[in-house]
Structure formats: C-alpha cells, structure tokens
Amino acid sequence: MPARPASPSTSAKPADEKITINLGYVDLGQIDLLVQEGFYANRTDLIRTAIRNQLALHREAVHQVVARKTLVLGIQHYSAADLRAVQAAGETLQIRVLGLASIGSDVTPELALATIDSLTVLGALHASPEVKAALAARIR
C-alpha cells in the first residue's frame, strides 16, 4: 500500500537538528576570517548558507528522486489517533519522509508495530526510544 499522509501537525516548528563536522584548520581559519570581516554573523551562518546554496544547485535532482521514491517532503507527524484510524481501516503505513518524521509520545510500541509496515526517513525521526526499538527491524 502506498504511503499515506497523516493529519498535518498543528504544533510549533520543531527545533533544528544538530550535526557535527570536521574541518581542516585552513578551512576553519577562512571561515573565521569571513565572519570577522562581517560577511557572515557566525560560523553557523556561513555553513548554513553554503549548505543551502548546494541544495539549491541540486534542487531539481532532489525533486526527481522525491517523486521517484514517493517521499513526503517536509514534516510528517503521526499521533496515536492517526494510527488508530489506520488500524480501524485495516490498513498499515509505509512511511517515506524526506525531512522530519515524528511519532507522537502517545503512540505505544504495540500500536506502532500494528500500523507501521515500514519506515524510511531521510532526515530525522522523532519518536520515543521504546517505539524506535520496536520498529528497528522496519526502519530502512
């Protein structure tokens, strides 16, 4: 069965995900120089700008892959009510998200197992440790 979108979330925008990168001293020095000279507010500003520029450069390729792999682009939230509705319909979900997939804190591991057939997330998955552990074999 194809991926089925859940109800849109009405909660506030989730916090950004933190990543760690290793840079050589020369690259880091050049970044600090550009920050010092006022081109960017701080290191993070430069790195975000560089990443956004690269993503813009490859925007068409990303859109083609999203369409081909039937990914939902953005934030997808699944509450217990969403999953109970799926269960009542006798269906299961094949969740495919490019962005953030969020499974509500009210979702039990048993409900997740009964309703989520597979889970593919390119980005971040927010769920309780118990739900993540229960779905571990279904996460691709």
TrEMBL record:
- Per UniProt, what is one Pfam family of this protein? RHH_8
Q: Which superkingdom heads the taxonomic lineage of this protein's source?
A: Bacteria
Q: Which InterPro entries match?
A: Arc_rbn_hlx_hlx, RHH_8, Ribbon_hlx_hlx
Biological process terms in GO annotation:
regulation of DNA-templated transcription
The protein in question is named CopG family transcriptional regulator
Species this protein is from: Caldimonas brevitalea
